Each structure stands twice: as C-alpha cells, then as structure tokens.
Amino acid sequence: MTTFWLVVVLAIALGWPLGHYMARVLRGGTAPLDVVFLPVERGLYRLLGTSANGGMNWRGFVMAFMFANAVLFALVWVMFMTQDALPLNPDAAPNMKWDLALHTMVSFLTNTNQQHYSGQAQLSYLSQMVGIVGLQMITPMMGLAMLAATLRGLFGGREAIETAEGAQAPAIEGGERDVGNFWRDVIRAGLRIMLPLCLVWAALLTSQGVPSTLQRGADIVPIDATVEMKTQHIPVGPVSAMVAAKQLGTNGGGWYGPNGTVALENPTPFSNLLETLALILIPVGCAFMVGPFTRRRKLTALIFGTMLGLSLLSGLGTIWLENNAPGTAAAIMEGKEVRFGPDASAAYAALTSQTSNGSVIVMHDSLAPLAGGVVITNMLINSIWGGIGGGVIQLLVYMLLALFLAGLMTGRTPEMFGRKIEMFEVRWLALLILVQPLAILGFTAITLAIPSLAGVSNPGAHGVSQVLYEYTSAFANNGSGFEGLADNTVWWNVTCAIVLLLGRIPVLVVPLMIAGSMARKRVAPEGPGTLQIESPTFALTLAAVIGILTVLQFMPALVLGPIADHLQLAAIAAASGG
Amino acid sequence: MNTLHSNHLLQSRGAWRPALVLAAIALLGFGGLYSLAATGIGRVLFPSQATGSIVVRDGKPVASLLVAQPFADPRYLQPRPSAAGYDPMAAAGSNQARTNPDAIARIALARGEIAARDGIAPTAVAADLITQSGSGLDPHVSEQAASQQVGRIARARGIPVARVRDAVAQATQGSLGSPSYVNVVKVNLALDDATRDALAPAQ
After folding, report:
1. What is the distance between the alpha carbons of residues B42 and B37, in angstroms, rounded to a whole number?
2. If both were cysteines, with which of A52, A252, A314, B145 could A479 make a disulfide (CB 3.0 to 4.6 Å apart)?
3. Contacts of A75 in chain B (CB under 8 A)
4. What residues contact residue A475 under an 8 Å CB cut-off, 6+ apart?
C-alpha cells in the first residue's frame, strides 16, 4: 500500500506544476527557458518549411497528423525488416518477418507498445534506439498536440482562449477557426516536456541498476559448477533511455520480453516507485493542464476529480482483490517478483491499465481472476487517466455524451461551453462509441470461434480472458497482455494491427472533428439556466455514463472471462480446502 | 490573417515535407540522439550499474546481481524456480492462470520436493520458492525462503549456522514499505568466501 499512496501523492504534487507548465508550453506567449529552447525550435521550424508558420483549421491539423503517421509507418516498418543489414546489432538480431514488423511498428506508432516479440533477442540496438525510442518519444506528444487542438476547438479556436479580444469578440458564425499548428505543438511538447523528464528519469534509473551502455553484455560462468548451464549471457544495452521513455510516455514497451518484471529493467523498490509514478505523471499533468490552458480553471476540478475518484476505486479494489482471492496463499507469488511483493504489483497493474501505459512488473495472466477483470475494465474505460492527450480527449467524449443525455432528461438543448451539441456531433459520437465494441468483441468472437487461431495457454474461462484481454489492450492502445498467448502469428499480428489503428486514429481524429465543428458555433452566454458541469452531480452523471457505456456493454464478455474464471477458482479452493 | 490560405495548401500537397522532416527529427533526434545522450550520462555517472551490475571474481565475470542463475548443489542458497531455465535471452514467466491445472499440480509438487530438501513441513515452505517469478530471472528470495534453507546449507558445508545467517543478513535489503528480500548471488558468493576462509588454515 505504501507504494500506491506515495505514487498518488507524488503524482498530484508534481502533476500540478507540470500541468501548468504544459499549458504554458502549448499556449502562445512566453514559457520558461525560452532562451534555451526558442533558438532550437526556430532552427527546426526552418527545416519544416512554411507549414510551421500560422495556424491550421481542424482539417489541416488532422491531415498533418495523418501525414506524420504515414511517413513514420513506412520508415520504421522497413527498418525492422532490414535491421540485420544495419549497424549496431551486437547480439545479431535477425530481420523481422513482415507481419511481426508490421504489428510492432503499428503498436509503437499508436503509442501502444503491445509486443509480440522479445526485445533483447529480436531487435538490434539501432532498432531499439531509433525506431522504438523515437516513436516512444514522439507519439505521446502527438497525442498531446491532438488534445491541445481539441480543447482549442471546443472553446472556439486559438484566439478565443489566448487573447483577451478573442474571448470577447463574438466570432462570425460558421467561420473556420484556427486550432493551432500541429508541427509546432509536437516539437515544443517533445523538446520541453518529454525530453527533459526522460533524461532525468534515465539517469535515476541507471543509479538503481538499469543498464546504460552500447557494449555487448557479459557472458558469465555460473558460480555453481554442478549445474547444466555452462555460460549465461547477460543482455544489456541502452536500456535506461528506453525505460524512461516507455514509463513517462504511456508507452509500455520494454527492452526485455517480460518487461519490468526483469530486474535489469526495474531493479529496486525505489526504481519501482519512480517507474510507477512515471506511469501517471504526465497523464495527471494533462488533467491539470486543462484549466490553465482553456482559462476555465473549474474544468480541471471536474476532469481531475472524476479521474482521481475512479483511479482510487480501481486501484484499491485491485489490491484488495489480489490479496483476497480464493486459495491465495499458495499461488500469490506466481508471476510476481520478490522485491515488489503483492501490494506494489497489484498497484502497478491497476495504474498501468488506468493509463494507456501497459508496462508490467507482474505477469497479468497469473493475477487473481477478478483483479485481471478490473485491469480489463480499466482499459475499456481508457480515460481514468488514459493515454497522454488521449485520456482527456476520451473523457471529453464521455462529457459530450453525458451532456447530451442530461440535456434530453431536463428537456434543454444540450450544449458544452456554451456551444450547442447538434445532429452532426451526436451522429459522429455515436459512430465513435460503436467502434470499440465492434472491434473488440468482433475479433474476440472470431478468434474464439476458430480455436486454431487463438493460441491460448490456459484452458477454460481464462482462455477466453486471454483473447478478450489482447484485443481490449490493443484497442485501448495499452499494450499489456495476458502474455501466455502464442501471439506471434500472422492472424494475431494483422488483426491486432487493425484494432490498434482503430483504437488510435478515429479516437483522436473524430473528437477533433467535433471540436472543429463546435468551434464555428455561436456562443450562448452562461446564465442561471445553464447546466453546471463543474459540480458533483454532473461528475456522478459522467461516471454513470462511463459505467453504462463500458462495463454494461462488455458485461457478457466479462462474465464469460474473468468472472467465470473466479468462480472456477473458488470451486477449486473449496474442493482442496474441504 | 492568411492562416486559412496556408491550411488549404497543407491539405493538398504541402504536408509531405514537414512530415518527412518531423519523422527524421523524431527518429534521429528524439530517438537516436536522446538515447545516446541518456546512455552516455548513465555510463559516466554509474559505470557498474550501467553495464549490468556484473560481479567479477579472479578476473572473470561470475554473476549479475540482477539476474538469477541456477544453483543445484545443496551447499548453495536456492533461487526461485524459473520458467525460462534461467536463460535471460528467453526470459519469461509461466503465464499460467490460478485456475490452470498444470500450475496447481506444479506448485503442489514443488512444495513437496522443497519441504523434503530443506527438512521442513510442507506448509512451512515459503510461497516464493514454489512459484515461478514473472521474469524467470528473479535474483531475490524472501527472508522466509532464505531462513528455511539456512540449516541445510550449514550442514552441507560443515560450517556453523551463524556464519550462514551472517551471509544472509548481509545480502538482505528492503525499503519503501516493501517486504525485505535477499539477493541469492550475494549470499552464495559470501558463503564460498566463508568456506574458503574456514578451510584455509587447515591446508
């Protein structure tokens, strides 16, 4: 419990100033350390050409996002398929097959980091440092840029929230609005937020024992001469740089196959505190950024309050369920590491799925079934903290839906921040929320119907959980897994790549499109008849909408998976105990 | 303001150049240069940790303090069972569910074997010794797992129990509310040193 509470307190204490700093970085005007960063940024803008100047409407912003994704898609895919011919490959990792390379690339491009490979054996140092880490650094900042643009749109465009005149001048109805410049947002966020944090985290992690070298690791001769193993190769590399980026950027993809369970990736309780804190630090910062960024400070209270409430509920619930499962005593350390123990492991499992991080310090397959069920539910909600940018965007989507429903119930025209929610917005919202069940349940059903595709490593209900978990994790852009799955097959690689893209592109683009449409509307001044959204009543409505849309929608699948698994476990425990 | 004008340019054909440049900045700058910088800083500030916490004896690397290695001889403190055969290149947990019959049978079998090996009751066997860790490379065992092995090690080595307890105590750590844990490699290196010292005067 100590780790969990320390992390929550530290995340709030550090996330508050971080959020304010992020708001200043992403708003126009001066920001701290301009002396250092501005000259670098100007140089990079010159390389980018004219498109780094001026604003974009929502279409321009989306196109920039799509073009950037397309170029990275092609470059990194080719790199993974040709890594053996490229430099920096001391452990002789072979070229990746097309489907594994496709899945790996898409997985990192979508800020997911679901892994169907083992990094220490299947990726060269170059692929890790340039391909993987490059995407781990830039994709969360792309998510953050999409959040900034969405917020600008919802409040009527950049001028409206950045200038005093803009806030007062009633914009011409129907006119296009400037939602910012994608290239500038990504570069500023990368240089000023992600890079400094990662450098600090990498150094601190190395102090605890995370490797940080370009040399090949040692081949040791075991101490006990009677064992069969004659030499043991210790895989090292530029690990700490990657682990810092994977933890801070809601990425999750580790250097080693079993991720943070490997002591070289997370060596001590202190390194674990740093890594657990890093899971939620920038996502908490995103929640705190909303108020100062939009100049509607109360909005932070609603977003942060809702997220914190859900986070504590799910975090404490996971720890309790893990410690109180039937027949716990014998198997509680299965899949866990002694230096973390059950409490810190369960806390990490909860927080890594509340954000879209997905790194692990415990094998989720071996968690108590209901604790695994909470982890799946966290990923279905995907906005308890959520991914960087994506989490708050998803919460804004739930807010739009909650306002629409509240509007229907009270008989008023639903509106958000004074702008009407109309046919166009609701139609796209409806499509957006349908993508999730279609993608997750559709592919889960097909895979379970054809057992040769599934490749599950556990019989019975847990096998259902394994398949459900994999697609849920892919759609949530989380990346953790019930790792017993034999998932390096063409079927798993290709279908997961599709689900990964469905969980990233529409989920970021459709809200920006809606915001772009809202931005053009006339603002009705707030009066006594306006629905007060920054209130506990609305927060509860919001939580209820989240619950109905995720938990109830997926209840049949959850019953067949984790809940049935739990009942089987209870039956086994009763039989052996009695 | 001509911002709208530039938007339309961007939508038609202008976005390839910035997209290519951003990709280069991302992969070479945020990926390559950042990794090199962070790796260099770590390598200079913490040279031992940076290369894998390798222990060298007589000029030869014999262990990483952060990777379990196999021990079979009863004179050594035994690590947790490994689903990966202690091979770091194949690191993995069992990924078996609590309800998996194979896992239940394996845990029951290990409990019996380890109880017999250490001469204690099956119910007294530490939970971490009968379960496979997440990585298959857990370099630590719990204090309970170490103390249940102390008597066996002392008998096998012909040294006083107190010497073994000393070795365990010196390899025990714990902080931030985590349960204390024992580094297996550290204990076994200390045990070998202690045994060598005990034999030295006789030779």
Report:
1. 9
2. A252
3. 23, 27
4. A379, A436, A439, A440, A499, A500, A502, A503
User: Residue A293: what pLDDT?
Assistant: 96
Q: Is the distance from CB of A256 to CB of A264 less than 8 angstroms?
A: yes
Residue the block writes with tokens 């859900």: A310
The complex's ipTM works out to: 0.93
pLDDT of B148 strictly over 90: yes
Cβ atoms of A366 and B96 within 8 Å: the answer is yes
Q: Does A93 touch chain B (CB under 8 A)?
A: no
Which long-range contacts (C-beta less than 8 Å, at least 24 apart) are formed by A569-572? A569/A325, A569/A326, A569/A327, A569/A368, A569/A369, A569/B98, A569/B99, A570/A326, A572/A326, A572/A327, A572/B99, A572/B104
- Per-residue pLDDT at B9 exceeds 60: no
pLDDT averaged per 10 residues, chain A (length 578): 94 98 94 95 92 88 96 97 92 94 96 91 93 97 98 92 66 78 96 98 98 94 94 96 97 93 96 97 98 94 96 97 89 96 96 96 96 96 96 97 90 89 94 95 95 87 95 95 89 96 97 95 83 90 91 93 96 82
Residue A143 corresponds to which amino acid?
G
Shortest Cα–Cα distance, A190 to chain B (Å): 8
Report residue A305: phi and psi, to 5°: -60, -45
Contact B137, B76 (CB under 8 A): no
B122 touches chain A (CB under 8 A): no
A270/B96 Cβ within 8 A: no
Residue B44, chain A, CB below 8 Å: the answer is no
- Rounded to a whole number of angstroms, the distance between the first and last alpha carbons of chain B is 93
Q: Which of residues 350-369 of A touch B (CB under 8 A)?
A: 360-363, 365-366, 368-369
Do residues A230 and B82 make contact, with C-beta atoms less than 8 angstroms apart?
no
d(CA A239, CA A252): 13
Position B199 confidence tier, pLDDT thresholds 50, 70, 90: low
Burial-class residue A316 by CB neighbours within 10 Å (0-12, 13-18, 19+). middle
Q: Does pLDDT of B4 surpass 70? A: no
